[in-house]
Design goal:
Jelly Rolls, binds zinc ion, 2 helices, binds D-sorbitol-6-phosphate, single chain, globular, mainly beta, 3-stranded antiparallel β-sheet
Length: about 190
């Protein structure tokens, strides 16, 4: 039997950086078709800001093993919609996940394949359990980077297809300085 070596790392709680991790950058141009307000999207595309960065330590896709990653989701809006991550189901749909809030304010939008949505507010210290089968997307509703840790099965994988195509049944928007969830007019089951 050969054993893997344990890992201990310190997350930089200001920047979200995990030493030795693999970095992924998502700019606004990577999120084409995701936001409701296409005009506002095209306008902001001139700047093409970074929407989020992911710092991941991942293992081979094997049952029983775990990956972990921080996400740094920047503050911003496209029209009235707050910046968000793409959102996904897991390729192995029954794989669950744990999130832990590190910095900033935001929340998680979750959804069953039938479109039943849940919104869970997150701040530093909040733990969110993502049950099997639920799609999940994080949203920055604050004015500083929203940073969190995710721990997920190494064989979970990401299924972006259906969210890229249909989105979530709810939109998270700003209205009169408040965070509001409204029905997505484009949602179809
Ligand atoms: C992985 C976990 C997170 C996200 C990250 C970016 O299962 O849920 O690390 O990958 O927050 O979001 P997305 O939807 O672009 O993968
Ligand atoms: Zn996930």
């Amino acid at each position: 039997m050969t054993y893997k070596n344990p890992i201990g790392v310190d997350i930089d709680l200001e920047t979200g950086i995990i030493p030795g991790s693999k970095k992924l950058v998502r700019r606004l141009s990577d999120l084409k078709g995701y936001f409701q307000d296409e005009e506002a999207y095209e306008k902001l595309l001139e700047e093409n800001p970074i929407v989020y960065e992911v710092y991941a330590i991942e293992q081979e896709e094997r049952e029983g093993d775990l990956n972990f990653a921080t996400t740094v989701l920047y503050s911003g809006r496209v029209g009235r919609e707050f910046f968000f991550t793409k959102g996904h189901y897991h390729s192995k749909a029954d794989r669950a996940e744990i999130y832990y809030g590190i910095r900033g304010r935001g929340g998680m939008l979750l959804q069953t394949p039938e479109g039943k949505a849940e919104w869970i507010e997150m701040k530093p210290g909040t733990v969110v359990y993502v049950p099997p089968y639920w799609a999940h997307r994080t949203v920055n509703t604050g004015d500083e980077p929203f940073i969190f840790l995710a721990v997920y099965p190494a064989d979970a994988g990401h299924d972006y297809g259906s969210i890229a195509e249909k989105g979530f049944s709810k939109l998270v928007i700003e209205e009169d300085g408040r965070v509001k969830l409204v029905d997505n007019p484009k949602w179809k089951e």
